[in-house]
TrEMBL record:
Start and end residues of each stretch annotated as Disordered: 128-169
Lineage, top ranks: Bacteria, Thermotogati, Deinococcota, Deinococci, Deinococcales
Pfam families reported in the protein's UniProt record: PRA-PH
Organism this protein belongs to: Deinococcus proteolyticus (strain ATCC 35074 / DSM 20540 / JCM 6276 / NBRC 101906 / NCIMB 13154 / VKM Ac-1939 / CCM 2703 / MRP)
Top-level division of the source organism's lineage: Bacteria
Protein name: Phosphoribosyl-ATP pyrophosphohydrolase-like protein
SUPFAM superfamilies to which the protein is assigned, alphabetical: all-alpha NTP pyrophosphatases
């Protein structure tokens, strides 16, 4: 695969396919079905996630301090671009971790999203968090992974459903 193709997309970016292509381009595993990782892979993914989370926390703290001190500009892009960058880096590493485990992030996200939608109408905590209503059931992520393992759950990162301009290796 030509790594230069990684940054040219012909339409909406398919994040799963993009991360799978990235990992293939750098010679890293990108299985298309759930697979147990090596201890080394888990170690590096943990390190990357910890580093990115620390950077997100730093930007959150800086923005919170600027807001509290009245120093924040009335220009959201100027104030939010660093936080947006770090949050996106965290998403990138999170998606990459799932891809390296052979898990389709879009499939698990869809299941978790549906479970969260079932919280609508539930009680609110004092800080505004929506709580689980009586009878709420969590996402069946295990079922999604079992479907991916059997090939019965569509994996967005391996199906040519959307042209992203990325070529699979």
């Amino acid at each position: 695969m030509d790594p230069a193709r990684l940054d040219r997309c012909a339409g909406p970016l398919d994040y799963t396919r993009a991360l799978r292509s990235f990992h293939q381009a750098i010679g890293e595993p990108a299985p298309t079905r759930p697979a147990l990782p090596s201890a080394d892979l888990l170690r590096i993914r943990r390190t990357l996630l910890d580093e990115e989370w620390a950077e997100v926390q730093e930007e959150l703290d800086l923005l919170q301090a600027r807001l509290a001190a009245g120093e924040a500009q009335a220009d959201p892009p100027a104030e939010l671009h660093r936080l947006a960058h770090e949050l996106t880096d965290l998403l990138y590493v999170t998606y990459g971790t799932l891809v390296q485990l052979g898990i389709d992030p879009d499939a698990t996200f869809a299941a978790v999203h549906q479970a969260n939608l079932r919280k609508v109408g539930g009680p609110l905590r004092a800080d505004g968090k929506l709580l689980k209503p009586d009878g709420w059931q969590p996402a069946d992520v295990r079922g999604v992974l079992e479907g991916l393992s059997r090939g019965t759950e569509q994996s967005q990162g391996t199906e040519p459903s959307r042209d992203t301009g990325l070529q699979e290796g």
